[in-house]
Amino acid sequence: MQAKPSTVPAEPYPFDLRPAECGLLIIDMQRDFLEPGGFGEMLGNDVSQLRRTIEPNRRLLAAWRAAGLAAMHTREGHRPDLSDLPPSKKVRGRPKTSIGDMGPMGRILVRGEAGHDIIPELYPAAGEPVIDKPGKGAFHATDLQSILQNRGINQLIVTGVTTEVCVNTTIREANDRGYDCFVPEDCVGSYFPEFQDMGLRMIKAQGGIFGWVGSSADIVAAIGKG
Ligand code: TIU
To answer: Exposed, middle or buried: residue 6 (CB in 10 Å: 0-12, 13-18, 19+)?
Structure first.
């Protein structure tokens, strides 16, 4: 039986979840960002800050699938010929090794390379769209909006990494396009604890200026009621 609409605890106020119109959008849970020895760690980041999101995402995705609801995944990356890579993004930070160069798990953030793919714990199932995005936001230069419209989706549960970069950018894009976004705080992660905190506060401040913040357990409980 399809999960029924219900009210989920959230800040700044409860979220009216309509499961049939809601998509789970999992942002960039890619090996290069999350795995020890990947690009993220090579840049000096503490990947354990992101890895704590894997298990809550796994539980949420399992419950979402069991309820027969729409799940989508994104990956940040570029064409092998790098024709969709802005020169500004290539050189930003003046790194010794940058996008398109050989990294610990193949060419960094290039589609088709091992490090670009989604971690095995959250691997997309057949029928779940994977949106390959060249930017930080999931709407920029992708067909995400068409996919959502064609499925009658007007609410999003947004999870993944990183809270202040690709998750926040996507939520801002979604908000301007009329989508209500709920962010389970245990399912989003940042390499920087202070950005995790502020990234979430920015979403729910000013009466929920970009969306709602809550917990994945409350979403799982809501859709589990059937
Ligand atoms: N997916 C995503 O957030 N891409 C990034 O580059 N994030 C950083 O925090 N650098």
So the answer is: middle
